[in-house]
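Students often ask why we bother encoding 3D structure as a string. The short answer is that it lets us treat folding as translation between two languages. Here is a chain of 250 residues written in the first language.
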Amino acid sequence: FASIPIFLVPSQFSATAPLKMAAKKYPFRAATMGGFCEAMIPALRLDYTEVNRRVNYLKDKLDRATGADFIFAHPGGESTLHLDLRFREAHASGGLLPKPGAAGNLPSGEAYIVPYEGEGEPSRSAGVLPVQFGNEVVYYRIENNKAVEVLSQGPVSAQEAEKLRREPAYGNMAELGLGVLAAFGIRPIGKVLLDEKLGAHIAFGRSEHFGGQVGPKDFSGPDAVIHIDRVYVPETQPDVVVKRLELIME
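And here it is in the second language, the structure alphabet:
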């Protein structure tokens, strides 16, 4: 690592977490490109100075916010979710990596933050989070920043309930991200690396590589470690709509 100044990592699986951790120790720059494919090339041709400006604008808002309030519309009606953003610093992933010791995604275009996970006082993150899988919408009950129960019925709901039972760390609310690339005409392609940069997304699982508390030690083994984003744009979740998202300031 010490002798290589730049890494480009178009790997099958995401190398974001290990490279972010390694970049804190070694003076390299790295672009992580998990699942990279030809359909992502238009997102590399954007004006990244403008992408970066918008991302940093949102980072400033997330830095100053103490919480985020969602209202979701879905086939079951409406539900609300509060994410606790106290005691946390946001991150900007604007596609520019000019300084050594930095690793980030390409394509890029999001500001993101780890909700407070309750390592001191209890987290205030609570509510109901809907996520659409195919034709089924799964409803997770969130308490103390964790999905603790699946409220819906169906084959996918049963699978998700089993995941929460088997791996409680899977249910950690690991990230709130706000992507900007949809405003540049980019559309989802079915790859999380790109799709999460389009709009609002909420991640489950690992967070320590973003400054959170949940890491590999909290899972049953290396194969169980996961960080998975649920992206709220019409093409990825047509039956679930973010009707309103408010950042709460002091």
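Translate back mentally: The first strand starts at residue 6 and ends at 9. Keep this in mind for the problem set.
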